[in-house]
Amino acid sequence: MDSLPLMRELAIEAKTKILLVVLDGLGGLPLTPGGPTELEAAHTPNLDALAAGSICGLSTPVAPGITPGSGPGHLALFGYDPLQYEIGRGVLEALGIGFDLRRQDLAARGNFCSLDPATGVITDRRASRIPSEVGARLCQKLRAIQLPGVQAFVEPVKEYRFVLVLRGEGLVDGLTETDPQQTGVPPLPVTATRPEAQATAELLNRWLAEARRLLADEYPANGCNLRGIARDPGLPLMPEVYRLRCAAIATYPMYRGVARLAGMDVLPTGDTIEAEVETLRQHWDSYDFFFFHVKKTDSMGEDGNFEGKVAVIEYFDRLLPQMLGLAPDVVIVTGDHSTPALWKAHSWHELPVLLWARTIRPDHVRAFGERPCMAGGLGHIRHTDLMPLAMAYAGRLTKFGA
Amino acid sequence: MDSLPLMRELAIEAKTKILLVVLDGLGGLPLTPGGPTELEAAHTPNLDALAAGSICGLSTPVAPGITPGSGPGHLALFGYDPLQYEIGRGVLEALGIGFDLRRQDLAARGNFCSLDPATGVITDRRASRIPSEVGARLCQKLRAIQLPGVQAFVEPVKEYRFVLVLRGEGLVDGLTETDPQQTGVPPLPVTATRPEAQATAELLNRWLAEARRLLADEYPANGCNLRGIARDPGLPLMPEVYRLRCAAIATYPMYRGVARLAGMDVLPTGDTIEAEVETLRQHWDSYDFFFFHVKKTDSMGEDGNFEGKVAVIEYFDRLLPQMLGLAPDVVIVTGDHSTPALWKAHSWHELPVLLWARTIRPDHVRAFGERPCMAGGLGHIRHTDLMPLAMAYAGRLTKFGA
Fold first, then answer.
1. What does the alpha-carbon distance between residue A382 and residue A384 come to, in Å, rounded to a whole number?
2. How far apart are CA B151 and CA B142, in angstroms?
């Protein structure tokens, strides 16, 4: 259910502050059956004390069984139904490298690939995973391509991956990808899925023809594909929907980018959680809502580093009292999705969540962990439920109906 | 929510196997307040051991308070929202007697009824519940009816009930029933609810006029009504949606029929649970998904036989280790709906459900029963959540969004 229209209707201003802490990839799994998860194994006296005064539960990011990417996971935390509001892959990729994407820009993820010089069919969709240095040099080469009335930015990401951003008037999305997702066939042309996008499709095909000419001698990276060609989705903006002055504190570009798409002010901060806490302190008086993002829980999970993830959680726990010392009115601690170290990847498992406020109904949860949260007073909820709950506990929603 | 489009988008192939065990009508009620349900009363060491290593919960087949028929209950288990995907009563009745229904056939449930010979109004909607032998003889008589360009099958079901199937070109559904659901009025004509069905309505009315002529001397069964006139709903097929090779093992025709409508291969099997287990063993290597149906739990519930239902559950429990010995990757045990012996009928009560896989988050449930499952880690879910969860735990879903 899309709760944004209801929020827009019921939101009122107040002097309260909401702190949403996202420990990326927080949810975990036991390494051995019956053992503790990462969060359960971590020594977290401060989170446990907070949980004891909170209402806890488990939350599903998108839908049961669905493993979300970072985009949908965060959109859901901000109250956007991720099945309804979608950020294109090209846009996320551009945000991920900190590209200053503007509202009208068109962004695509690019993949260098290997083409059979004689037949033009794809022989390797990832161009033998060329080193990042080679990718950067090829991007530099592609920057020479000129398009009429449109600026084309080509930015390296990593290895065979790059971002193409077109900037100019009249760019329209609704465009198919060129990657046929298999070898032995040539790249597809970009086609328009709606008539208005026809001219943009032609521009991209022109760019692709030029790119292929420039890359001809660069085997194994003698071709490229464009995926997820998309524009800023034009999300309803959080300050307008919730009447909150919203700030984002995150160290990684992608999360900063998603927050910006949602209308938050993205605060300059450092690379560490301490730096983020200091940023929070400095800007405490200027905002009503803070999205506070901790990245390394997810990175450790992706690396399969159970102990590393435990250590990041414990590190965060030691800094928590400083954050609580700022006296937020509502605190939520959860993650965007699970990244069990056992799994070395995002997963669909529910997220432990705690919601602290002065007027909660206490439950019996005395420690913050997946199993204690199973029996928590929040029950099993959806990520999209969190913002309405936070708004309510912050005294920022008026009554619905007479 | 209809999760089939998402499943179709995210499903990937893998070498894992999913076993869905449906103990029909599993959910029960205590005979006396505070007493055990049928499942709780049963001695089930194997189910309990499986539950201890599983994540458990309670599941609602359709919606809170809604008592499902066998069709909606099973559709939901297979991932089809039963409020969106419907199998007509005529189709279910035809499947229930094992009629080899084809995709273009039109099927109706027929009821012999008593008409006042003078006025033609219905005096008994069930024709004094004539014996099955009489019903069979009357069906034989009705087979004489000829329709232009269309074959008409008339098959007895039980007592006053029969099935009419029309087979031929251009049969269109969207047809009203003839049963006015009261006595003292004549049967209604079949009418088309959309213009394309007009010709089919006329065919059926012609058949009904002939039938009434042939039955004129057969009081109390001197008339008949047609209900639930419908075609195969053309469900999205499970092998296409989930990319699973799907097999059904069930002893009763209706469940075999519903499975076939969903695109499963229906395996030949015997009349006992042992025979079904042997069928499972024989075909284990050839399929990725098995729907394993146990009927007698429901039959005992319908009969009000609490001890009989307990005995069927215990019987199944003894065979469970043979099934687990095949080393499925995901096991779900639940039912399509509750059939408490106390109630002697289907009911709306939630179903206990256990989901076993290697990467579950364990909960505190140590016995498989309605009350332990209330506190299980799955919480309260919907039947339609089960297939997405099974797919996720089987490693058969890719990530949603970037």
1. 5
2. 12
Cβ contact (<8 Å) for A380 and B385? no
**Under 8 Å between Cβ of B341 and B304:** yes
- Residues of B near A (Cβ–Cβ under 8 Å) read 1, 3, 6, 10, 53, 359, 361-364, 375-377, 379-381, 385, 387-393, 397-402
pLDDT digits (tens, 9 = 90+) for B288-303: 999 999 999 999 999 9
d(C-alpha B95, C-alpha B255), whole Å: 8
Contact A69/B385, CB-based, under 8 Å?
Answer: no
- Residue A169: is it exposed, middle or buried by C-beta count within 10 angstroms (0-12/13-18/19+)? exposed
- Residue B174: the pLDDT is 95
Per cent of chain A over pLDDT 90 is 97
Q: What are the pLDDT digits (tens) for A242-258? A: 999 999 999 999 999 99
Residues A197-212: pLDDT tens digits? 999 999 999 999 999 9
pLDDT in tens, A1-52: 799 999 999 999 999 999 999 999 999 999 998 899 999 999 999 999 999 9
Of A30, A64, A375, the CB nearest to B381: A64
pLDDT at residue A96 greater than cutoff 90: no
Closest-CA residue to B361 (of B384, B334, B392, B383): B392
The mean pLDDT value for A183-198 works out to: 96
Round to whole Å and give the CA distance between A378 and B100: 49
Q: Do the Cβ atoms of A23 and A330 come closer than 8 Å?
A: no
Beta strand segments in B175-216, E:
none
Query: Nearest to residue B243, comparing CAs of B204, B195, B287?
Result: B287
Question: E strands within A67-172?
Answer: 106-115, 122-124, 150-158, 161-168
Q: Which residues of A125-154 are buried (b: 16+ CB within 10 A; e: fewer)?
A: bbbbebeeebbeebbeebeebeeeebebbb
Query: In whole angstroms, what is the distance from residue B221 CA to residue B107 CA?
Result: 21
| Cα(A254)–Cα(A98) distance, integer angstroms | 7
Q: Is B256 left (phi over 0), alpha (psi -120 to 50) or beta?
A: alpha
Q: How many residues would you count in chain B?
A: 402
- CB contact (8 A) between residue B363 and residue A379: no
Share of chain A above pLDDT 70, in %: 100
Nearest alpha-carbon partner for A378 in A392, A360, A359? A360
Closest residue by Cα to residue A139 from A171, A162, A115, A122: A162
Tokens encoding A309: 């993830």
Q: Please report the ipTM that was assigned to this predicted complex.
A: 0.90
CB A180 within 8 A of CB A122: yes
Task: Say if CB B368 and CB B352 are below 8 A apart.
Answer: yes
Pick the residue from chain A with its C-alpha nearest to B387: A65
Write down the residue that tokens 């959540």 correspond to. Answer: B385
- In this structure, are residues A355 and A330 in contact, taking their beta carbons and an 8 Å threshold? yes
